[in-house]
Amino acid sequence: QQQARLAGLKLKRMCQVPGCTADLEAIDKPYCSVKRICPGHMKADAIPFASGLMRYCQQCGILEPLSLFDDFKRSCRDSLCRRVKRPAIKEGRVRRKRPASFSNRWDDTANATSCHMYAG
Questions:
Q1: DSSP letter, residue 68
Q2: Using CA atoms, how far apart are residues 27 and 14, in angstroms rounded to an integer?
Q3: CB atoms within 10 A of CB 100
Q4: How far apart (Å, rounded) are the C-alpha atoms in residues 82 and 60?
Q5: For residue range 81-98, what is the model confidence (pLDDT) as tens digits?
Q6: Residue 11, phi then psi, degrees to nearest 5
Q7: Nearest Cα residue to 81 out of 67, 70, 96
Q8: Which DSSP category does 11 fall into?
Q9: How is residue 56 annotated by DSSP?
Q10: b/e 87-96 (16+ beta carbons within 10 angstroms → b)
Q11: What does the buried/exposed string (b/e) look like for 105-119 if buried means 16 or more CB atoms within 10 Å of the residue's CB?
């Protein structure tokens, strides 16, 4: 990639899922290009990776291990838990930014989910 940049060539923005050849620039959906995932994989129930099965979390905007999801929900338990716990946002209140270590939280086993949602 670095050699292509040095040569002045523009690299295609491709889906981050191994084996997917979707050109995200041709899809014309800026969100897909920013998150580097095609609409098909964004909606997939499970995506095979070397590290195991993954699913795209709509709240976090990243691929996460399938074990962090309840049934066929599109948001992980952590993000659902944060939504339930956070107070209603009042007018004029600034939203907090996510911590820098947020995207790698499944690598740390000490950060186990403490909030359990009732699937009812």
A1: G
A2: 10
A3: 7
A4: 11
A5: 888 876 665 555 556 666
A6: -80, 145
A7: 70
A8: P
A9: E
A10: eeeeeeeeee
A11: bbeeeeeeeeeeeee
Checking if the pLDDT of 1 tops 70, the result is no
Q: What are the DSSP calls for 83-96, one per residue?
A: HHHSPPPPTTPPPP
Compute the Cα dihedral for 71, 72, 75, 80 and give only its sign. negative
Cα gap 30→61, rounded to integer Å: 13
Look at residue 112 in the predicted model and tell me its pLDDT: 47
Which token pair is 75? 């948001």
User: Between the CA of residue 19 and those of 11, 38, 49, 101, 117, what are the distances in Å?
Assistant: 17, 12, 10, 28, 34
pTM (2 d.p.): 0.62
Calpha distance 66→34 (Å, rounded): 22
For the segment 50-78, what is each residue's pLDDT rounded down to a tens digit?
A: 999 999 999 999 999 999 999 999 999 99
